[in-house]
Design goal:
By secondary structure, the chain is mainly alpha-helical. It is built from 5 helices and no strands. The protein has one domain. Helix 4 crosses helix 5.
């Protein structure tokens, strides 16, 4: 049975559940932020690697791609860089 005398005591006097909830939320926010930072660092590293592959693209391979997709060199570079910036995983997996 519940003791109504205890129920009338404020929460801050009965173990301060609010501070426990705040601490839990703060810990969860820090963990989420750390995970996002790690994912962003990994994404940035892959993006840098993909852009480096584009910079190393040979003229012969560029001519093949330009003929295949009917693009100019400038348009080809724009398309490749766009894909490398937005989907570096797929770009690195597939290659040029």
């Amino acid at each position: 049975m519940l003791d109504h005398g205890v129920l009338n005591v404020p929460l801050s006097k009965r173990g301060n559940i609010d501070s426990q909830i705040d601490r839990y939320k703060r810990e969860q926010a820090i963990a989420k932020r750390n995970e996002l930072d790690a994912r962003k660092a990994e994404f940035d590293a892959k993006k840098t690697e993909a852009l480096a592959l584009i910079a190393e693209l040979s003229d012969d391979r560029a001519k093949e791609l330009m003929a295949k997709h009917k693009l100019t060199r400038k348009e080809l570079d724009e398309v490749l860089k766009s894909v490398a910036r937005t989907k570096p995983d797929a770009f690195l997996l597939r290659g040029i």
